[in-house]
Every structure is written in structure tokens, then in C-alpha cells.
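Hello again, I could really use a second opinion on something today. I've been staring at a protein lately and its backbone has me curious. You're getting the sequence in one-letter code plus the fold written as C-alpha cells. I'd be grateful if you could look everything over and explain what you see. No rush at all, and the record is pasted right below:
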Amino acid sequence: MCFYFGWRQCRCRTGDVGAGPSPAIERTTVAHDDRLIGIVETSRWGRPSASLILYAGHPPTAGTIRGLGHACVGRFWQGVALRLIERGEAPEVESLGAESGVFFASGGQQPIEALAEALMPYLTDAEAVTALVREADAVGFDFHDDCGP
């Protein structure tokens, strides 16, 4: 498999990863930070799309999030993405989802990359995530992490 970190890219056909050759599908992995967010670019029959994958449990802000009464799980990060979209700080994407400790989103490459950029401060900056959570809690926003007020 091809994985590069930063903004570098590597294109791999599915045949390169043992799934059998398929000229209709290409995958590219791009990650902002190897511990935080990965972006997989997919082209199927000439139609480009991308998926964002965030392994939710251990960002630098995890302790801050727990201290605010929330669970640092995929559903919390789905709520963060929804709040950023509601506030106009991130673009709408085709789909958002979460399962256990993973948050994922899919859509066009530019909206997915913009969503990743919008999420990064909340993964790395305790003050930013504190301000977002307090503002959201104050207006009754539900992060759906089953832990909030």
C-alpha cells in the first residue's frame, strides 16, 4: 500500500494491494498528520471522490475533550464537523459517519480537504476545542457522543 504524510500523494491501483487488478479504481492516500487525519482519493470510472478518515481516540486535545464532559469518539468528531458546517466554517460534504473510534466523511476532493483543514485546530489546539464545545453546549448543540450535558 502507498502511504505518504504531509501533502504528498501516491497513486495505487487496487491490484497493488492484493485485491486483484482493477483499472477502473485508483486510490490515493493523503494525510495531514500521520496520527490524526487521512484522506483517500478515489476515482471510479472517471468520477473523482475522496474520503476523510479520523481515528478519534488520541488527538492531542483528547484530555481537554474528556475534561469538558464529552467522549473523544467518532460520534463526537462527527458532531464537531456538523457544528463547523452549521457555522459556515466547513463545506457541506456528501456524507458524514462514525463508528466506535473512527469518524469518516466522503465527497468531492476539495470539500473533503477543506473539512480536514477546518478540523485540524480542534484536534491540536485545546483552546480552540474548548471554545467550540462551550459555544455549542451553550446553544444546546448535541454532539451525540452520549456524554455531553
Observations:
- The beta strands are 11-13, 25-33, 37-44, 47-55, 95-99, 102-107.
- Residues 1-33 have pLDDT under 50 and may be disordered.
- The two ends are 42 Å apart (CA to CA).
- Residues 43-138 form a domain with the Ribosomal Protein S8; Chain: A, domain 1 fold (CATH 3.30.1370).
